[in-house]
Structures are given as C-alpha cells and as structure tokens.
Amino acid sequence: MHIITFSFECGGFDRPLMRGGLSPLVWQLSRQYAAQGHRVSLVTPAHGHLERLRASYAIEELPGTGAPHTVPLVLDPKVWAGQPAEMSLELTTTAHRMRLDGVDVYFLSDDWLDLLPDRLYPPPGAEGRDLAHFKPLVFQVAGLRFVQEVLRPRDARAEPAVVHAFEPAYHYLLPPVLARDPLLRTVSTVAANAPVGQKVYRPQVERLLALFGVHGTDLDVLDGPLPAEDSARAVMGRALAGTRMHAEYGPDHVGLFPLIAAHADLVDFVSPGQQAYYSTFRDAPVEALFETLPVSRVLRRRADRLLTGGCGVTDSWLARDPASVDRERVLRRLGLDPAAPVFLHSARYAVHHKGQLELMRAVEEVLDGGLEASFLIRCATGDGEAANAYFLSVADRFPGRVRLTWDLAEEDTLFEEAACAQFCVFPSKFELDGFLIAQAEAMACGAVPIATDQQVTRHFRHGVRPLTDPSATGFAVRGSFRDDDPALATELAARIREAATVHRTRPETYARLSANSRSLAREFTWERAARTRLDAFEDVVRGRPRPFPASAAIAYGWFDDLPETARTEHADALRESALAHGDADAWERAGGPMDPGSCERLFAAAWSRADFARCLRTAVLADRPDLAARVHGRGRVEGDAEGGWRVVYRHEGVVRVEVVVEGSASREGFGLETPGEALASDEPVPGPTGAVLVALSPGSPEHPGVFSGALGGRPPGRELVVMLTLVSGRVTWDSLPLARPPYRLVATDLDGTLLRDDLTVSPRTLRALAAVADAGAHHVVVTGRPAAACARILDALGYRGLAVCGQGAQLYDAGSGRLLSSASLGRDLARRVVARVEEALGPVELGVVTAPPDSRFKVTERFGERVRHGWDVTADRARLWDDPVDKLILHHPELPEDELAARTKELCGADVTVVHSVKGMVEVLPPGTTKAAGLERAARLLGCTGADALAFGDMPNDIPLLTWAAHGVAVANAHPALCAVADEIAPGNEEDGVASVLERLFGSEAHHD
Fold first, then answer.
1. d(Cα 1001, Cα 766) in Å, to the nearest integer?
2. Cβ atoms within 10 Å, residue 577
3. Beta strands at 306-308 and 266-269: parallel, antiparallel or unpaired
4. Among 42, 280, 593, 983, whose CB has the most other CB atoms within 10 angstroms?
5. Selection from 1005, 976, 1009 nearest residue 992 by Cα
C-alpha cells in the first residue's frame, strides 16, 4: 500500500520539531509502515527549520511544487474586530524531500508554514489578534493540494492510497474533500481528546470546501439546531464553556470532529480506553451534552469505522537496559539524594491538562511533612524557559529534594532519568490524554506509576486494586475535571506517602509492582500498533466489512444498536452491562426477570450513577411509588422574600454539588498561574460565559450526602442546573424546577377532548403541551381506549410518557410500548352481568375487549353503525367468551345509554364498575376501575397527588377524573353530567379547548392555526 501520513507535527526524529506525544506517534508509525514493506510519504510543515535540517540530513527541493496559490480567509467579525471580512493569502509553497528510515518526508515551506519556529503552534491567544493563528489552516490547504497533485495515484486502475492524518484540528478538511475520491482513503487519528464540541467558522469551511470543488455537503445535519437559550442543555453548555471541556459557538460554526466522523473511512484511537471515552464520554461532565449532539449518533451509526490502533514505546528505548545506568552518579549530578526514592514526572508544560499544579502542591505538602523522597520534574516548554513562578518557588524551597527542568531533552537524558526513578507520577486531568507515552517509557524502566484513574489510561492498570492483585502495577488517584483541584492535590500527596511506605516497608510488594509495570509497558510496541492499523487499512482499501464487536457495543451501553442475534449470543454480558447501567429496558430485553430483587438492584445501580431517568423507569416498571418518591425528593429550590434562592440536595453517593448561577469567574491568580503565564501556555484560557459553577456546602458528618446553600440571584434558565460529583468519580448533571408550575400534573382524555374529531392533535395544542413540559409538569393521557387501540395515536403525538388506558384498568408506557399492568373483568363475571341485565331489561347487543396482548374488540352483529374498522363481528354469542375478557360492552336497542348505565349499576354495581363514555355504548369494567383510580396510581409514580392535578374530559366516564383533580375542565362539547361537576368549561375539542386553558395557565406562546 501507499500510506500518506499527514501531520502538523512530526519531530520523532528531530527533537526541535517535537512538542509532545504526537511526534513520536507519527514518526514511529511511519517507520513501521515502511519496515513492513509499504511505501510511506509523510507530509508535514517545515516550521522554518529547513536550513537547520539540511545541516544534518540530505534534503532536496521537489521540482514543480512552487506554483503560487491562494488561501482564502473568511474572518469571523465577532473575533477579528477591525479586520476585513475576507482576505487572501498569496503563497508559494515548496516541497522538500528527505528520505529517512525508508520514509519519504515531505517538508512544506512558505511564508506562513515557516512562522513560529520555536513553538510551532500558534498560541491560543493569537486568535483575533495575529494572523499566524491560521498557520494550521494553511497547512491543511497546502497539504491537501500536495496530496492531490503529487502523491495521489495517477492510474485510475491503481489501488487507492491511504491518507493517515493525525489530530482532527489539523486535518478536518481532508475527509470531506477526499471522501468522493476513489483513489484515496482517509484515516483520522485522534491522539489527544480535544473537546468534542470544538468548532470552526462555517463560512471559512464552506469557502475552502468550494476551493477544492466540494459542494452540497450538508453541514446542518452535523450539528443540529442550537438549544433554547433558557433550557437546561444551554445552561449546562455555558457552564462547561467556562472550563476546559467545552466551548460554545453560534449557528455560524460547524463541528470539526463531526466533519471527520461523518466522512473518514476510519476513525483511529491510540488506546481502547480512549476509543471508549471519545465514543461515549461516559462519566465525564460532557457526557450529557454529548448525548444531545448529532455526532454521538454518527459514531453509533458508523461504529464499524472505529479503530483502536494503539500506541507504543520506541525500539531504541526498549533496547536499553535500565540496570546499565549508574543511578548514584546521575542523581548526584542532578543534586538529588540517591538514598531516597525518586518520583519522576516528565511531560510538556501543561499545568492544567497534566495536573502539574496539583503535583507541585502535593510535592510541597509531603516535603513539608518531612517525607524522605526526591522529585525529578521536567515540564518541557518550547524554548526551555521557566514558565511558572510557583513551581520555581517550590523547587527553591527544597534544594536537594526537587529537581525542576524546563527543556526538551534528548532520549539519552530522558532514559537515564527514568531509569533512576522508583515511581513515575502522572496526575493528568480532563481525560485529555490518549495513551501517555511518557508513562509507558518510565514504566518500561520499572518505575511504578502513581496516576489518575482515567478511562483513557486504564491500559496501564495502575487503578487495579488491591495492591495484592497479581496484575496490579501501581497507585491511582481519582480523575479530575477541575482546573484547580485541591482535593486531587491532597489525594496525590496521600498516594505518594503510601508509595514511599510500600517501598520502604514492603520491598517484595514494590518489586512485584515494578516487575509488572516493566513487563506491561514492554508489550506496547510500535510494530504491533502498525500491524493493527495495516490490517484495518487493507480492509478499507479492499472494501472488506469490519463489523463493530458486540462486546464493545455492550460495554458502551449501546444496547439499542445491537442486532437480535447479538442479544441472544451475548445475553449474559448484556444483562451484566444493563445492570451496571441500571437500564431496566435493556435488562428485560436480555431476558432478565423484573422480580423485586432485580428491580432493587437496577434501581440501586441507576441511583449510584445519579441516572434519575433510569431510576424512575425502574420505579414505574416495578410499580414502586416508594422508589419514585426517593427520586422526586432528592432536591428542592425555594425562593425567599429578598429574591434569593435556597437549595437543598440529598444523595448519599455524592461528594460535591455545584449549581450554575449567573456571573463570570475571576481568573486572576487562578490555579497559582498568573494571567501572563496562562496566556503564554499552550492551554487556552476559558473566557467568560455568563454562567459559573458554585459549590453547595456539605452537611455535618451526622448528615452525610446533604448539601445546601443560598444563591444571591436567580439562576439562568428555566431550571436550576446542578453538577454532581459522585464518590465513584463520575460527574453528571441534574436539574431542579425553580418555580412550582400552576399544576404539576395535566391529565387529558383523548377522544372528544384532546383530539379533534378527525383524531388529530392541532399544532396549537402540541405547542401548549410543550409549554407544560417546559414548566416541569407532567402530561398524562387518560383514555377509555385499551392500550392497543391508542398506541398509534400516541406515537403520532410523539407521546413517550405513562398513559392510563382502558378506563383506568391499564397502565401503559408509551416510550417503550409496554403494558405495565392490566386488570381483567373475567369471563364468568361478564356472563353473570349479561344474565342479570337481560333478565331485567330484555335482550342487549354485546361486545368485549379481549385481554392483552391482542386487546381485540369483538361484538355481536347488531351493533350496527357503532361497529368500527378493525372490530371483529360475530353472529355467535358464544364466540365472545373464547378469550380472556378485559371489559364488557352493552348496547340496548331501545334504552338510551344513560338509562342503560344507571340500570346496570343498580343491578351489578356491587360487583363491577359501569361507565358511559361513547354514544350508544355502556362499558362494564373490573370492580374499582375508574380513570381516577388509574391516574392516581400513575401520579404516585410521578411524585404527584390529586392536589397537583389539572384534568380535562368530555363524557360521564370522566366524572371521577375531574372530581379527583384539583381543577377539572370540561370541553364545551362535553356531556351535561360532566359539565355539572366541572370547575371550568373550555371551548370544544374542535376549537382547541385544552390548548386555550393551558396557554392561560402555563404561559404558552401558542396561537390559533
């Protein structure tokens, strides 16, 4: 194969061209592809280093590549104030080839690509101030031109070449541009986990796609509509935008990762945990937001394109012997005590991403406490200059204990330092790493890891507990999603002390951990990582399918995407994963019993994850109002006389509760990093978003899991948005109503009430119901129809909640299409009722509704015009009793239905319930069955009572419903008996009477259509 590696950075062979783990990833894979017999062309910027490189390598300028070209820039006026809306960069980009280790390296050079030779990357603060910000964009354009004009196969019959590009932010144009080219296949490697919501200016993307002849790409479908400004989703996004996990953009931007996910032939990750994390963002603060984004569905739909290629440690590193390093000599040269255990940290300077602030705080704490240990800390900056005054102050306080350096060292130096260390410390945060090569290198020398328990680095097994586990490698601290996290620093200090104690008092345990670390890390080879990718490349080039493993879909919680065969073949694993997620629907589909014990376990699992939707789901399926009440009682918001708000939140598994309030966080001195230091770093400083997170105060030790606090002003949005950090480390979101709606429960009959005569619901009524939901109230359909007869209508409504059906005899879950419970009349009782009525009133026409799941209407033939489409008509009465009966229907040829209902109640009312809901028919139901009784049961599951309810109806069978509710409304076309008990008469069903009342009470902006 011809493999074209495409990367903004590739200094794996040349230290000045390297800024992080991306360089060795690109270079080592390129070398291995070539070593395994493939043609490899590496495209990368020269970054102004051509002359320096020529002094060490044979480099030739490629003839015919210096033609002038134009890169059009479309500037966002909100960012580039004072600049023209559009401009063009007139460039002459030349290509220069160097052949090294079997790889053709093509350096692209022009006025823009040679900018910033020291740091390579534009600083985050350049956007809006310095056009050097567009250097990576210029590389995409120039690199794409070079691939198409020079490297693309010329023979239409040739095998397609594979363009293997690295890091979405530096190649998002390639997949959509090359997707229609039959001679090029694109592979996108996500090396570090940039925010999935990262976007680029849409007019710029459209202009560049047009530059390459790409038209008709539907960018709208990649991002979806923006949420309502006052919605919980929007408030959550604004709060996260004040962190390093998310950024907010307007509708004039498009997501760069969705561009890749929708068009790349493969999306490649460097570790299994990274693929799992970036496909689900499970347990991270952005998980709830990610689930609302179209890209989450794209990844599930295109799961067969996902690949974990892996990462590795260089052969040259693995070939060295740590025992050959003179540890005492090296440490004395560094000014450290060889007798003390050495804790190593080696990474680029990224104070927040790498957890270096918490590391320095932990170092200060343990050394202040007298711990006998040495710390060898390298925070490499692009120019080797010191970047943080606080870090320097810690090193100055502890000479002989802390060695702090800032330069990019060669492999010889890095290996010596790693070989001297008993422990390596990597408290990375935000799940931003992909693999962490530096940790693997240190472990390969036998250093025992102390690191955060990130999903993305679980391949290192430092989170395995207890230490006596034969596979354990080290010590873990919880993951963190906070810039300045004192709790993480405290926990890190505790793990450092624990590690030093193990080293001193349990040498056999330390030796086992060290041996495990060394053995595990040496399994991560570039040869294996390249082979994994090459196998996948061959599948793509040859059009062979790559099914996504069912085991991965189950682990990710993608239960709905599993084919039926997988549900059967993997039933045990599916039940185990469903139980871990607290997903009652998946549990039941996998054959799990919904017995009381299983329901308790499912509820406990969902509760431990603070997944309250699934908690309520289990409570409904189990008919457990007590569990539902626990969910409904978890939090409370109350306004006070001064306009403030008092919040109380209860959950025994929560360690931190933060609420979103209006305001902007001050960043001065934030994280012991000055504004100047923050601006100079490679980490962008989050800007103000108008929403900040404020922590509630935990309760006393006697009341664990209780948090409370007062808010000075009204929170943004319709609800109080709450971020929860659980004892497990999971971070998730919740919302609490800010104001009590006028009614928490809105119950509506269907026929003749909510529905127009043609059985449709008007747009006006749908908008009014949406206003009910927005206010935090529940809408419950309460109908005489059996569940089977109203499912189609509810689907058309988009109704997904509980429905009370069969005059109250059935509780139906429209979201899953599941009948939760059903009361039956019974054939014997039905026949006795018929006998009594006919003895007193003469012959009647009969009908029955059979028991679920069929729920068929069966009637005698003289029902006449009352027979509806789909009913079974029989001349033989005996056939009515062939199946179990839910309810009985009576029609008298002479008596009006009101009189028939009254006489039937006199005759049989002690044994059954008798109602009149449809002209010409009287229904006989199991005893105690009323719409009110059915709604009361549903209301308990929703945490409501009759005092919270507003009810609408039109027939006498709705009388119990309206009298049970706090406010009962009859529509103008209602039966006189119902109007007599109603608190209000609304316009008729054809005039959207339900909507008119809801608009008044819930403030809907609906209008007449």
1. 15
2. 22
3. parallel
4. 42
5. 1009
d(CA 925, CA 915): 8
Q: Read out DSSP for 361-372?
A: HHHHHHHHTT--
Per-residue pLDDT tens digits for 227-281: 888 888 999 999 998 788 888 888 999 999 999 999 999 999 999 999 999 999 9
Do 306 and 265 touch, CB atoms closer than 8 A?
Answer: no
**pLDDT for the residue numbered 549:** 94
Instruction: Give the model confidence (pLDDT) of 756-804 as tens digits.
Output: 999 999 999 999 999 998 888 999 999 998 888 888 889 888 898 999 9
Quick one: average pLDDT of 993-1002? 95
Rounded to the nearest angstrom, the gap between the alpha carbon of residue 899 and the centroid of all alpha carbons in its chain is 59
- Helix pair angle (763-774, 993-1002), 10° resolution: 30
975's tokens: 């039966």
Which distant-in-sequence residues (6+ apart) come within 8 Å of 356 by Cβ?
345, 347, 349, 350, 379, 388, 391, 427
Distances (CA, A) of 467 to 513, 553, 965: 8, 31, 60
The Cβ of residue 582 has, within 10 Å, a number of other Cβ atoms equal to 23
Between the alpha carbon of residue 595 and those of residues 489, 598, 602, 612, the distances in Å are 45, 5, 11, 20
Given CA atoms 380, 382, 385, 390 in this order, what sign does their dihedral have?
negative
End-to-end Cα spacing for the chain: 62
Tokens representing 917 are 């809901």
Tell me, what DSSP letter sits at residue 17? G
- Rounded-to-integer distance, Cα 1004 and Cα 772, Å: 8
CA dist., res. 480 & res. 240, Å (int):
14
Q: Do 994 and 986 meet the contact criterion of CB atoms below 8 Å apart?
A: yes
Tokens of 858: 């069966």
Identity at 63, one-letter amino acid code: P
Distances (CA, A) of 336 to 363, 375, 401: 15, 8, 6
Q: Which amino acid is at 711?
A: L
Q: Quote the DSSP letter at residue 861.
A: G
Angle at 620 between CA 614 and CA 624, to 5 degrees: 110
Amino acid occupying residue 660: V
Name which residue leads in pLDDT, 107 or 817: 107
Which residues lie below 8 Å from residue 701, measured CB to CB, with a gap of 6+?
Answer: none
- Strand runs labelled E in 241-289: 253-255, 266-269
pTM of structure: 0.86
Provide the 3-class DSSP secondary structure of residue 180: coil
Residue 413 to residue 629: CA distance in whole angstroms: 62
Is the alpha carbon torsion for 755, 756, 757, 759 positive or negative? negative
**How far is Cα 202 from Cα 782, in angstroms, rounded to an integer?**
47
The closest alpha carbon to 960, from 986, 988, 925, belongs to 925
DSSP secondary structure, 648-676, as one string: EEE-TTEEEEEEEEES----TTGGG--HH
How many Cα atoms within 13 Å fall on the side-chain side of residue 941? 25
Task: State the Cα–Cα distance between residues 707 and 934, nearest whole angstrom.
Answer: 36
* 62 close to 125: Cβ distance less than 8 angstroms: no
Residue 185, beta-bridge partner list: 162
CA-to-CA dists, residue 816 to 464, 508, 936, angstroms: 38, 56, 21
Buried b (16+ CB within 10 A) or exposed e, 202-225: bbbbbebbebbebeebebeebbee
Give the distance from CA 886 to its chain's centroid.
Answer: 43
Can you say whether the dihedral through the CA atoms of 942, 944, 945, 947 is positive or negative?
negative
Here the tokens at position 669 are 């001195």
CA angle, residues 133, 139, 142, in degrees to nearest 5: 135
As a whole number of angstroms, the distance between CA 933 and CA 505 comes to 68
Q: Which amino acid is at 151?
A: L
**Integer Cα distance of 9 and 576 in angstroms:** 43
448 and 423 Cβ atoms separated by less than 8 Å: yes
Instruction: Report the 3 state secondary structure along 67-83.
Output: CEEEEEEECCCCCCCCC
Measured torsion, CA atoms of residues 550, 555, 558, 563, in degrees rounded to the nearest 10: 20
